[in-house]
Structures are given as C-alpha cells and as structure tokens.
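Ticket 4471: requesting a sanity check on a complex prediction with adenosine-5'-diphosphate. Repro inputs:
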Amino acid sequence: MAEIRLENVVKEFGGGEQAVKDISVTIKDGSFTILVGPSGCGKSTTLRMIAGLESQTSGNIWIDDKNVNNVPASKRDVAMVFQNYALYPTMTVRENIEFGLINRKVPKEERKKLIDEVVDIVDLRKHLDKKPDKLSGGQRQRVALARAMVKKPKLFILDEPLSNLDAKLRTQMRAELIQLHKRLGTTFVYVTHDQIEAMSMGTDIIIMDHGVVKQQGSPMEVYENPTNTFSASFIGTPPMNIIDRSNAVNVLQDINDTIQKVGIRPEHIHISTKPLNLAHCIELSATILSMETLGAETLYQVKTDMGVMNVRSFLTPLSNVEEYFISIPYEKLFAFDRNGDTIKAIVFDIKEEPVHVFN
Ligand SMILES: Nc1ncnc2c1ncn2[C@@H]1O[C@H](COP(=O)(O)OP(=O)(O)O)[C@@H](O)[C@H]1O
Ligand SMILES: [Mg+2]
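Returned structure tokens:
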C-alpha cells in the first residue's frame, strides 16, 4: 500500500529545458492512477523520478509519509513493468520470474512459494518451462508482470506496457490489468499516451502537457468537467469540437465577452435530415464532408455556420441527401476564456424555443 506525493517537482536534463515543470500531485493509496499526455510531455520522467531511477532537480517526493529524495530505487519497494519487457531470452519463464528473487537472496523454498502464488494469477502455470521465444506477446507481458508481482511491492509502476501488443491483445490485457489491480489492491501508476486506455483503466487520471499537470480527477470528472481546452480535447473520441469565438458569434450573437472559445462534444450533437425543433437547442443547417459507418455508431464531419464539426451518432446512418441539420443543446456547451480555462458559471443565454440558424 502506498500514497505518493510530489511537491514542486522539477526535472531539468541540462540545456535549461525543463522536462517536468513544478509538479505537485498526490496519488492516492490503492488507486490505479494513469499519467496521460502526448509524447514528450514528461510522463516517463515523472514515473522514473517516483521509482528513483532519475533524481529530481528540485522538489520533494514522498512515498507514504517517508521523504524518498535520497532513497535509491532498490530501497523504494517499487516494481516496474515497461513497454519492452526485457525478458532474458535464455532463461525459462520460471527462471525469469525467479531471477530478481535470487538477486535479493530470497531462500529457495520461499522463492518456490512466491512463484506458485503468482503464476495462476497471470495464467502461466502451463508455460513455466518455456523460453520467451515460445510465448505470445501477451504471455511475455504477463511474465514481466509476474516478475514484478513476486516482489510484493507496495507500488507498481507501468510505462506504456501494452504499446507493443496488437489491438485485440491490448484490449484483453487492459481487462486483465484492471482485474489484477482489484485483486492486489496495490497502488498502480500507469503511463500511456492513449486516452482510451486512460479512460477505461484508471480510477484516477493525471493529464500532462509540456511538463505540467493540466488536470487530475476520475475519468468521468475529467470527461464531464474538463478545466481547460487541453483536457477537453484530449479526453473523448473524436475530441470535443472547440469553436473560436469568431465562428461562434455567427450563431450565439450575444455571448459574454470573456468567452473566447466554445466547446461541444461530438456525441452531444444531434444530426438529422429534417429540422428537429428541439427545445433549448441551436439548430444549424449542415453539409456532410465525410461519414464513417462503424456499425453501432456513425461519425460525421459536417460544415456549418459555426465551422467544421465532428458529430457522433448512435442512430442508423443517414441517407444521402443534400441538406442536413444539427442540433446543439445549450446545456452541453462549454465556454473557455482567453487562457483556454473553462468558465464555470455559464453564461449562455438559453432560449426556450429552438433557435434556428439556417442559411
Ligand atoms: N535522459 C534524458 N536526457 C535528456 N532529455 C531527456 C531525457 N529523458 C527525457 N528527456 C526529454 O524530456 C522530455 C520528456 O520526456 P519523457 O518523460 O520521456 O516524455 P513522455 O514519456 O511523456 O513521452 C522530452 O523532451 C525528452 O526529450
Ligand atoms: Mg514515455
């Protein structure tokens, strides 16, 4: 069990550029916390500082109530799993799992017991005597997990562990990791650039960009209440439509001066071939630029008086006609100020009757 606390943590690699800029966050004990953000935003560096593989330039790191600034990686009781699982090719599965325990001088009987405990969890009992080249990608990743688990760490750190797996296996391993976390109850800190992984696996998400934390919260909090345009457009597929004031005023003529951008999620826009006349909505005429039929849902890209927008619909794909209509519920609109921060006390003058803006 472990709570991790970072206080004003900065990492500079030389050259004056800061990979991590003054981060202060708390990672809850027992949580499955995801560090997510685009490539190069400082996720791995943050993870490596928590693990003790990299020392911070300034700031403090605590694991539980112990300041670990000067504690080496080997003494932090952290187990790590990486994208490239680096198994020893000449060793069997059992030897790979056992290796770290031998290094730590765990007695033979104890090693046997520990391995016995983990192999069923990762479903490797049948494969214990195989070499890694006889295993599938998923099985290899499970060996890496088993190797981490036998150490019984108080913290698991995983850096893009599923990136090398194909899409189907990745989905399966996601589910396995969620179950593993439930079963162990240990704190997991998991790095990914994939927002779908972040949304589906985490109990908590920390969104990073350019070395800073943009938002922290549960997946639904971040989805429902993004605090800035970066979080708003990072979480969700397709991303939230962010409309510049110059386009928004075409339709929302009387919007407040502080609003510089307006956001609407693709799944909150209704699309139809006839006007829908929905109350508390803005209705616009639209032309379809592209349409992707995915089975259960259809993605449209449409051109409107408010600009080009993505629309996600769970209805039957629309037939091919000249004119389409989209309806945007006022209550689903987000407003952002000039810094891209969400303006909470909204502001839109909600019209009781539908507002039609047809050209
Ligand atoms: N060992 C290093 N030396 C110099 N620069 C580094 C080193 N490791 C990472 N960086 C730089 O720090 C920034 C953050 O990198 P990283 O933490 O690996 O990002 P992420 O994991 O989010 O993709 C990048 O600009 C990267 O080039
Ligand atoms: Mg990385």
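Notes from triage: The chain has a mean pLDDT of 91. Leaving this open until the requester confirms.
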